[in-house]
Automatic annotation (TrEMBL):
<dbReference type="InterPro" id="IPR036282">
    <property type="entry name" value="Glutathione-S-Trfase_C_sf"/>
</dbReference>
<feature type="domain" description="GST N-terminal">
    <location>
        <begin position="2"/>
        <end position="81"/>
    </location>
</feature>
<dbReference type="InterPro" id="IPR036249">
    <property type="entry name" value="Thioredoxin-like_sf"/>
</dbReference>
<dbReference type="Pfam" id="PF13417">
    <property type="entry name" value="GST_N_3"/>
</dbReference>
<protein>
    <submittedName>
        <fullName>Glutathione S-transferase family protein</fullName>
    </submittedName>
</protein>
<dbReference type="Pfam" id="PF25907">
    <property type="entry name" value="DUF7962"/>
</dbReference>
<feature type="region of interest" description="Disordered">
    <location>
        <begin position="238"/>
        <end position="260"/>
    </location>
</feature>
<dbReference type="InterPro" id="IPR004045">
    <property type="entry name" value="Glutathione_S-Trfase_N"/>
</dbReference>
<dbReference type="InterPro" id="IPR058268">
    <property type="entry name" value="DUF7962"/>
</dbReference>
Length: 307
């Protein structure tokens, strides 16, 4: 089996969602550190323009968005499971809620506190990425409301733990726990780390849960250069995929389509449709540096547009 290669950077909160999953599974993986803002000259040839972090590579297959990355990790390292039997849909739905709601509230908390300390180039990059202003004054004025929203939503997770369970869905960490660890880790790491940092001063169960999650570590990473990752893609062949002929989209194998995130980083990636299921879309594309690759995206949260 080919190595799982994670293209990420240390302070990336969504990368931490994946790194903690590697820790839960005690998995081995390769680490390629990428820039925290554009340009990303060694990543774009692999993704075709998709600019979010992280990206996972397995040979000549490129997996975008942590929704799909986590499913691939689960497939390749099935034990211990991130999708508990009988609760698979619950775990995925909770993760989607966390990614789309709690995370962005947490971003408001952190950026409100740190926005005036960040480089101008970073603020401009994130403004272009998110489609909203990242000027320090606006971030600071919005921070109190972001903190209220973060607290209000984390209370729901606090209540899930109130019956004494150690993790959100039971006795073992699952996909939902990895997703929640992302914004909790982000606030704690960037705001000082202690349990007295709001809103954790009022969330003792989440605070204790986060320490249990942190103890999982990040598996067994080995550093890899971007050049080596590109060489691996160039020398490999993508795995076989198929298109559901009865898919309600009406899209057919061999069509050229564009795939675009519906929230942030709205850069379309174009390619030939080679895979389509209820949870993913796969397109084949060619780049002079990497050769033929297949780039995979989740269905939820992505817009598919025929060329």
């Amino acid at each position: 089996m080919s190595d799982m290669i994670l293209h990420h950077y240390p302070n990336s909160p969504f990368s931490e969602k994946v790194r903690i999953a590697f820790g839960v599974k005690q998995a081995a993986w390769k680490s390629v550190v990428i820039p925290n803002m554009m340009p990303k000259p060694d990543l774009m040839p692999l993704t075709g323009g998709y600019r979010k972090t992280p990206v996972m590579q397995v040979g000549a297959d490129i997996y975008c968005d942590t929704q799909l990355i986590m499913l691939e990790i689960e497939k390749r390292v099935p034990a211990p499971p991130l999708l508990p039997k009988g609760k698979e849909g619950v775990a995925r739905a909770l993760a989607m809620w966390i990614d789309r709601n709690i995370f962005w509230a947490a971003v408001g908390v952190v950026m409100g506190a740190l926005g005036d300390k960040l480089p101008e180039a970073f603020l401009k990059d994130r403004s272009a990425f998110s489609g909203r202003s990242f000027d320090p004054a606006s971030l600071k004025s919005a921070a109190p409301m972001a903190l209220q929203q973060t607290y209000a939503q984390l209370v729901l997770a606090e209540e899930m733990l109130a019956d004494g369970r150690p993790y959100l869905l039971g006795d073992a960490p699952c996909l939902a726990d990895c997703a929640l660890y992302n914004p909790v880790w982000f606030i704690k790491e960037r705001m000082g780390g202690g349990k007295t940092v709001p809103p954790f001063d009022r969330l003792p169960l989440i605070t204790a849960w986060s320490e249990r999650m942190k103890a999982a570590g990040s598996g067994s990473p080995t550093e890899m250069t971007a050049a080596d990752a590109i060489a691996i893609a160039r020398e490999a062949a993508p795995e076989a995929t198929s298109v559901d002929a009865g898919d309600p989209s009406g899209l057919k194998a061999g069509q050229t389509i564009g795939v675009t995130p519906d929230d942030t980083g709205k850069v379309p990636v174009s390619g030939v449709l080679v895979g389509l299921t209820n949870d993913r879309v796969s397109i084949r594309r060619h780049d002079e540096r990497v050769g033929d690759v297949v780039v995979h995206f989740p269905r939820a949260g992505f817009i598919l547009t025929p060329a």
